[in-house]
Write a structure and sequence with these properties.
alpha+beta; three-stranded antiparallel β-sheet; 1 helix
């Protein structure tokens, strides 16, 4: 996946408490169509962009619309 290549070091993905992590800006990963690990609750799988636009750029580079 292109997001694992150098230049995509500004995205943090967590599997954590859905009421805690949003306080710090984390959003549900499903918003970006990032698939959750098998058996993980969807609301606990979250992502945070440290550099605005990287998730959008990553989706484009990975060929995901």
């Amino acid at each position: 996946m292109a997001c694992l290549l150098p230049g995509y070091d500004s995205v943090v993905i967590v599997l954590g408490h859905p009421e805690y992590y949003p306080k710090f800006g984390f959003e549900p990963a499903v918003k970006w169509r990032i698939k959750k690990p098998l058996g993980a609750p969807a609301d606990a799988f979250m992502v945070l962009e440290l550099r605005k636009g990287d998730l959008k750029r990553c989706r484009r580079d990975c060929g995901v619309s």
